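Sample A.
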Amino acid sequence: MRNKKQTTKQDMNIMKLMEEFGTEDECRDALEALRWHNGVICPHCESKSISRLKTHHIYECNSCDYQFSVMTGTIFHDTHLPLPKWFVAIYLMVESKKGISANQMKRTLNVSYKTAWYLCHRIRNAMMEQNPKMLDGIVEVDETWVGGKREHVGHGYKGNKVVAIGAVERDGEARLQKIDNREKETLRNFIKSHVASDTKAIYTDDFPAYNGIDDAKHETVNHSADEWVRGNVNTNSIENVFSLFKRSVMGSYHKVSAKHLDAYLDELEWRFNNRENPYLFRDTLLKLIKSDNLEYKELTK
C-alpha cells in the first residue's frame, strides 16, 4: 500500500477565523499582538513610553506627542475596508492552492470589482520576499511561456506570450520571475541571482541556452528525445510548480496581464514556500504589517 503524504494541519480555518476575527476590535487586537508583542513602540521616535487614548484605538507617545494606531505605517493605513474583510481576503488567498480571482473575492466580500482587484494586489505585493536566501543542494531550473491561445496563427506563435523562469531547491523553496527573453545571458543572470555558487547540482532540460552554466554541476534531461528522468536527474519539481501556476490562470484568474505577471508569481511563490507552515495565515498578517501601502495610482500607472 502506498503511503499517503502527510498534509500540514493549518492553525487557522474558516470557522476559527469567523469566531476570532468577526469584529473590528478583535482584528485590531490581533494586529497589536503581532506588531508589538513586547509592548507598544512609537513608530516616530521608537519610545516605549506610550499612553492609550480612550477612543478609536489611538496611542500617544509621551516622548514626542505623536499619535498613531496599530495600522499607522502599514498596508492597512487609511483603509476604508473593514478589517474583518481584510482578514477573510488574506485567508482566502493563502488557503486557495490555485489562487482566487478578483471576481470571486468581489462576490465573497460583497465589494466592488475595483476594490477586490486592488485588495488582492496589495496583499500580493506584501507577499513578495525582499531578500530571499540563495537556493542550495540540488536545484532544478526551467522556463515556460505564459499566455493564451490565438486564433488563425501557427502553433509556435509567441507574440501574445511572455516568459517566466523558475528554480526549485529539492524539498525546499522556489524562486519565480518574469523575464524578457530566453537568451543565455538572461538565464545565467537568473541562476546567478538565486542559486548558491556552492550548490551541489543544477538540473535543467536540454534547451541550448543552459549549456555552460556550470559544467561541473550542470546535468540535463533530453526532453526532445522523450527523456524525462535519468536516475536522480529531472526537472519534475519546477515543472509541477509551473503546472500549478497555469492551472491557476486557467481555472481561477482566466487571464493574467504581462504587467502584473510577477505579482501572481510572487503569490504562488509565497504559498509554495510556506506549504508546510502551519502558521501561514499568521505569518502573512505579519508580512502585511511590515509592508508599505501600494497606492492605486502606482499599481495602475
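Sample B, a different protein:
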Amino acid sequence: MSAPAARKTWLERLNHIDRRLIFVIVFVVVSIPMLLKLTSPVKVSHEVQIAYDFIQSIPAGGVVMFSVDYDPTSAPELQPMILAILHHCFSRNLRVILTGQLAVGMPLGIEALESTAAQFGKKYGVDYVNIGYRPGNQAVIVAMGRRLRDMFATDYRGTPLDQLPMMKNIRNYDQIAGVVDLAHGGTPELWIQFGQARYGVKLIVCTTAVGAPDYYNYLQAKQIVGLLGGMRGAAEYETLVKAPGLGLLAMPAQSWVHLAIIGLILLGNLTFFLNRRAKNAENA
C-alpha cells in the first residue's frame, strides 16, 4: 500500500472514531479530579452573595422554608445547594420547614435535611419540621399564605402541627423569614407570582445551570433575593459557608471535561481537513 493510501486510511479511521472511546475518555477525565479530590478557587458571583447575605441577616431562631421541586435527574446540581444552605441555616441556629411541590423530590429533601440536622445535633419538631407534599402547586402556595394549616394540618408523619413546639406560633408566611425554592422546572415562577407578588415572600431561587438565565430578570426586578444556578452556584455557596462539598469537588472535573471536549472538537476538525486534503492530492 502506498504512503498516501496508508495515510488516508489512518485519517479516515481517526475521523470516524468509535463513540464508545469518546465516552471512555470523558469518563476518565471526569473521574481523575474527583478521585483525587482536586479543588480550585471559585469567585463568588453577586447573585449567590446576596442569597448568602439574606440568610446571614435572619436573626437566630428565624424560620426558613425549603421547597424541594426537583427529581433525581437534577440532583447532581441541586442536592449540593440544599446541603450548603441547610448547613448555613443550622450553623446560625435558624429553624427549617421542609415541603415540596414535586412528590418525587421529597426523599431527596428528607435525606439532605436529616443528614445536616444530625451534624448540628438538631431535634425534630424543635429545630426542623417536614410538613411533606400536597398536590396543587399554586393553590398550595396561596393557601399557605392565608393559613398554613389549611393545607398542612399535620407533618409528614401525621403528627398535628400544634403538637410540634416549633410550629405552634407559625400560622402563615408572616412568621417565615424566607423561602428557598430548589427546582429544575418552572416552579420558581409560581412562587414569584403567588408567593412573592401576593404575600411578599422573600425568595431564593436555586435551579439548574440551563434554567438559571430565566430568572435574572426577576433578580433585577428584586422579586427574588438571590439566585443559585447549576453546580457553580453550589460551589460558590459552599465557598461562602466554608463547607466544601460536591459543588467544589465537581468544578475541576467540569473544567477538565470541557477542555477534553474542546480538544476532541479540534481533533475532529483537523482530521476532516487533512482527510479532504489527502483526497484532493490523490485526485490531482
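Observation for Sample B: Residues 246-283 form the longest helix (38 residues).
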